[in-house]
Amino acid sequence: MLHKKTALLRAAAPVAVLALALTACGGNKKSTTAADDAPKAKTEKGSSAPADSAELKPGQGGTGKFKEESGTITYEVAAQKVRVSTEAETKKLVSDPKRAKGLVAATAWVKYTNKGGGVVKESPDVADESEIYADGQRGGLLIGAAEDGPGCEDTLDIENWKSGQSHTICQTYMIPKGAKSVEVHWAGEGQSGSPLIWKFDNAG
Q1: Between β-strands 55-56 and 196-201, what pairing exists: parallel, antiparallel or unpaired?
Q2: What are 44-81's pLDDT values in tens digits?
Q3: Phi, psi of 12, deg, nearest 5
């Protein structure tokens, strides 16, 4: 799973060096580490969608199922906010600023609530299905940038996640500078339809 791979990358990298999974908008995802700059394909989960697929307002929740290692959990998912960094801030985040030319980092705070199906024993993967789009095109995942941000929880610290409990997990993507519309997409597993989508205009 992508989560397990990114967890290892975060553990191995120095604090100031982050692994960049940079995607040309609309293209195939590729990841590079600060150590080797070798392309690696992202592991894709099966195509799917939440039960109540819809466009939602920031903070509004939608539900869908997701298969964790400990079983299939029904989650309520709500993208709370998105913050787009400046170019100067972005350069401090990435291991190779040249690869980030013309791009900025966008971080999404997403709240997940276990609505039933079991206890998630450790290191949930549900946040791996959250992606950030800019002006209709998917950005590139920036690994390790948001796990310890203000109000963000590190999935490595989440254990025994019971029904009724919520956690806020962040994801950071690289998007083109000056994007007019930023969206957060989340898709569950094993269902057909469209993902949940939250639109954030002039995110900041």
Answers
A1: parallel
A2: 333 333 444 578 999 999 999 999 998 999 999 999 99
A3: -85, -25
Cα gap 61→77, rounded to integer Å: 5
Q: What is this structure's pTM? A: 0.77
Pick the closest to residue 192 from 18, 7, 47 (CA basis).
47
Confidence of residue 30 (pLDDT cuts 50, 70, 90): very low
Tokens of 200: 């954030």
3-state secondary structure the chain: CHHHHHHHHHHHCCCCCCCECCCCCCCCCEEECCCCCCCEECCCCCCCCCCCCCEECCCCCEEEEEEECCEEEEEEEEEEEEEECCHHHHHHHCCCHHHHCCEEEEEEEEEEEEEECCCEEECCCHHHHEEEEECCEECEEECCCCCCCCCCCCHHHCEEECCCCEEEEEEEEEEECCCCEEEEEECCCCCCCCCEEEEEECCC
